[in-house]
């Protein structure tokens, strides 16, 4: 009988130790949870505040504020390179800025697509590359950069686009955009009154300015050169398609080859708006 009671006593003593251990484990668990919560409180705000790279809606260019609030789009492949910049913030109120930005970005995207299509750049085979001498340093190239101009009622962007298609000379041309304060793109005709014959007014002004600029560049225009200038500045929407407005002046742009030889470069014709006041809207 005594032995039996001792056994029960031993049994009770043996199972009396786990209870404090469970409390210790539970306490450690609570401490671990509290530490995790504390770390979360400290780290989550930093994660939430981490800047998300801003990309443009069409080309997917990356925004770079250090270069004047603009997007940069780069592609560098074995056979061609593309580098272009375009505005990420346009100083127009409300939805007008993004509206204008999309117009320009789509136009540049179309130029890039045309550049790639013209030379079948995405279908070049190793055999094609060997024939064309594409060796990693010799590549097709596309580059576009822009300048911004403002007047009281408009904002203009001039894109200078450079293309090297491995010919005798690279090609340089323009894309110009002028917007009103609502973000609506303006064509040259939109600046003038209906039936104003604005092309007939602008054409001789452009012709005279280009001839004068040729002389400043050291070119003595003969009859052949003058005919090239006349054709390049003719009174047509195609000849006078590149323009921008800076403060109180209208500018007409002519890329290389349009009005003179490639070596003569491009031409910028400046016309005071006051000179056009009778036909302006």
Write up this protein.
This protein has 281 residues and is of the alpha+beta class. The chain has 3 domains: 2-49; 56-186, Heat Shock Protein 90; 192-281, Heat-shock cognate protein, ATPase (Actin, Chain A, domain 4). The chain is 37% helix and 24% strand. Strands 1-2-3-4-5-6-7 form a 7-stranded mixed β-sheet, with helices on one face. The protein has a 3-stranded antiparallel β-sheet with strand order 8-9-10. The radius of gyration is 35 Å and the shape is flat.
Q: What is the secondary structure topology, with strand pairs?
A:
Blueprint: H1 2-14, H2 18-49, E1 62-64, E2 70-76, E3 80-87, H3 96-118, H4 126-132, E4 140-150, E5 154-164, E6 171-180, E7 185-186, H5 198-216, H6 223-232, E8 243-246, E9 249-254, E10 267-272
Parallel strand pairs: 3-4
Antiparallel strand pairs: 1-2, 2-3, 4-5, 5-6, 6-7, 8-9, 9-10
Provide a concise account of the structure shown.
By secondary structure, the chain is α+β, with helices and mostly antiparallel strands. It has helices at residues 2-14, 18-49, 96-118, 126-132, 198-216, 223-232; strands spanning 62-64, 70-76, 80-87, 140-150, 154-164, 171-180, 185-186, 243-246, 249-254, 267-272. The strands form 2 sheets. A 7-stranded mixed beta sheet has the order 1-2-3-4-5-6-7, covered by helices on one side.
